[in-house]
Write a structure and sequence with these properties.
mainly alpha; single chain; 150 residues; globular
């Protein structure tokens, strides 16, 4: 379906999922007393800015929703990157990799939809999306189990 309402509904559902991930990653940051890291923030801002600069001329009426979604998912990534400072490095690796895969999945989706449609985009998006969910959940389980063991 080409109707933008379907894209907006999908965007909204993923936005909600990212808000839940933000809450989870923020709770880890608070629990572990991890302070902000300017370098992590800078990395995320540079990527967001580069992607939005590339996509903006092609977004038309979708510019605001895509930018808002981009800010939210970027915030999720930044908080996930802070997991690298927890004691359980294996759980951290899973969560960070999952968050990065989510960024890759959404970037591929946006590039395919707005900038340059490419062959096998659907497969690439779904593969990275599925792995992203798997990795974040695996990392979360490992983190929660290790916290209960202490």
């Amino acid at each position: 379906p080409k109707d933008p309402i379907f894209f907006l509904l999908g965007l909204s559902s993923f936005l909600l999922a990212h808000i839940f991930y933000i809450i989870f990653f923020h709770s880890i940051r608070v629990r572990e007393r991890i302070s902000g890291n300017f370098l992590l923030l800078l990395i995320v801002i540079v990527y967001y800015t580069a992607l939005m600069t590339m996509l903006s001329p092609y977004l038309d009426k979708m510019k605001l929703p895509v930018r808002i979604y981009g800010v939210v998912i970027s915030f999720m990534l930044m908080l996930a990157l802070h997991a690298g400072f927890i004691k359980n490095k294996r759980a951290a690796w899973w969560m960070i990799t999952g968050a990065a895969l989510f960024i890759i999945s959404d970037s591929l989706l946006a590039i395919n939809k707005f900038y340059f449609p490419f062959q096998y985009a659907g497969i690439a998006v779904m593969l990275t999306y599925g792995l992203a969910q798997l990795f974040i959940v695996e990392g979360a389980i490992r983190y929660i189990v290790s916290e209960k063991a202490e």
